[in-house]
Amino acid sequence: MSILNRCLVSLCRNQSRFRPVGVMKMTSSSKVTARKLEGKVAVVTGSTDGIGLAIAKRLAEDGAHVVVSSRRQENVDRAVKTLTSENLDVPGTICHIGNAEERKNLLATITNNDELHNLGLSLTPMKRFGEPHECAGAASFLCSDDASFITGETIVVAGGMDSRL
Predict the structure, then answer these.
(1) 135 CB contacts (<8 Å, ≥6 apart)?
(2) Dihedral over Cα of 15, 20, 23, 25: its sign
(3) How far apart, in Å, do the first and last CA atoms of the chain sit?
């Protein structure tokens, strides 16, 4: 992203009076009508309460197939019940992320579920240069109210490749 583009993104995010025409304002409390994550799989660890649960809920609302997990089955059951009560179809499983066997079981939950398995799960870098429209999505996100709590951060858009900033 060029210096000019970074400045425009900064102006767009921080100075509402400089918001360019055509940038849609959307708050995180708004109901999302576009299912921009349709066909994507999201495994959210530690997702049965607080920020993790809010992330799982938002990803599911945006159309992703979400799997929630926690160390305790009762927490998983409570989170699944909460999300199901909001008409979100979200399975869950126990997983202590520090336990190698439980991490394997978490991935097995995904690969054994035909619907999730058919969507594909990529854990490897893309090994290609990004296209301009792929970088534009990050800039659009940073201009939106969804990024209202992000300040002074470096967002790397590199397709999983190592970056050297």
Answers:
(1) 1, 157
(2) positive
(3) 13
Among residues 66, 121, 69, which one has the least CA distance to residue 94?
A: 69
d(C-alpha 3, C-alpha 118), whole Å: 41
Phi, psi of 158 (to 5 degrees): -135, 15
pTM (whole model) above 0.70: no
Domains held by the chain: number: 2
Same domain assignment for residues 6 and 42: no
pLDDT in the model for residue 130: 81
Q: What would the mean pLDDT of 64-80 be, rounded to a whole number?
A: 93
Please list, in sequence order, all residues whose beta carbon lies within 8 angstroms of the beta carbon of residue 83, skipping any fewer than 6 positions away: 56, 57, 60, 66, 68, 90
39 and 77 housed in the same domain = yes
Q: Which helix (H) or strand (E) holds 44?
A: strand 41-44
